Amino acid sequence: MTEIHDSTGGAPEQIARLAEIMRRLRDPETGCAWDVAQDFASIAPYTIEEAYEVADAIERQAWDELPGELGDLLLQAVFHAQMASEAGMFDLADVARSVADKMVARHPHVFGDEDGNRTPGEQVQAWEAIKAAERAGRAEGGTLDGVALGLPALLRAAKLQKRAARVGFDWPETTQVLDKLREEAAELVEARETLSQAEVEEEMGDLLFTMANLARHLGIDPEAALRGANAKFTRRFAAIEAGLARSGRRPEESDLQEMDALWNEARAADKRAG
């Protein structure tokens, strides 16, 4: 049996150790009550959260934190595989085999006899063609079939639009997307003044959907762009708090005019640093 306290050995030994730890945690008699009580649905939000924490560490270039964050994400795969094994569905070996087989099948220019002298753009096209064939094999008849419902909404919007664009349902020019953006913004303003809250929400959704489409046309990952904006806002607001703290005050003891001035100072500092 794998020794759960053994921190030596390479990747195969440590992955086997992790799988054994999870098996022990899920043991209905001797395991952890919390781990035993979980199911696929209850663990799924943690899986999403851990993926974002990996992305956050990369965004911050926190390379010393990245092994731990990747380990947390790996644990999610092991957790799901253990629950599936208990239900007689599949196990961790099946998970690894599935992705390994997929990588071999999707890279015939590396593992097969296809031409390996492709540009990155040509390889993306070949990759998409292989994925389309895989979807056809799974009887996904609709163009948008298989775009996961559990994706963050902004990311899913971009993927839906990308799928539709493959079959020609797309604006040929970015300027047309900008025109649509102005139209949706005007409709949101009108809705706010004359329509119900539900209708305002619908118009807001249309505007965000169009923003995701604009990002795709500009070659920008909308999730990454929004993460960057969130990080910038956090950094600049922290500068506001630091500025107020120098006079022994907190934001609630200030006003918008003063905080806006501190914000502009932080923005100017960002520009100098950039």
Number of helices: 12
Q: What is the 3D shape? A: globular
Assign the CATH superfamily of the largest domain.
Answer: MazG-like
Distance between the termini: 54 Å
Number of domains: 3
CATH class designation of the largest domain: Mainly Alpha
Helix content: over 70%
**What is the CATH T-level topology of the largest domain?**
Helix Hairpins
Runs with pLDDT <50, length 5+? none
* Largest sheet properties: none
- CATH hierarchy: architecture of the largest domain: Orthogonal Bundle
Helix-strand pattern:
HHHHHHHHHHHH
GO molecular function: ATP diphosphatase activity
Catalytic activity: ATP + H2O = AMP + diphosphate + H(+)
Domain NTP pyrophosphohydrolase MazG-like: 38-111, 176-236
Enzyme class: hydrolase
Word description of this protein:
- The protein has helices spanning about 10-25, 35, 40-60, 65-85, 90-105, 110, 120-135, 155-165, 175-195, 195-215, 220-245, 255-274.
- The chain is mainly alpha-helical.
- The chain has 3 domains: about 10-105, MazG-like (Helix Hairpins), CATH 1.10.287.1080; about 140-220, MazG-like (Helix Hairpins), CATH 1.10.287; about 225-274, no CATH class.
- Helix 8 (about 155-165) packs across helix 10.
- The model has no long low-confidence stretch (mean pLDDT about 90).
Compact overview of the structure:
This protein has 274 residues and is mostly helical. It folds into 3 domains: 11-105, MazG-like (Helix Hairpins, Orthogonal Bundle); 142-220, Helix Hairpins (Orthogonal Bundle), CATH 1.10.287.1080; 224-273, no CATH class.
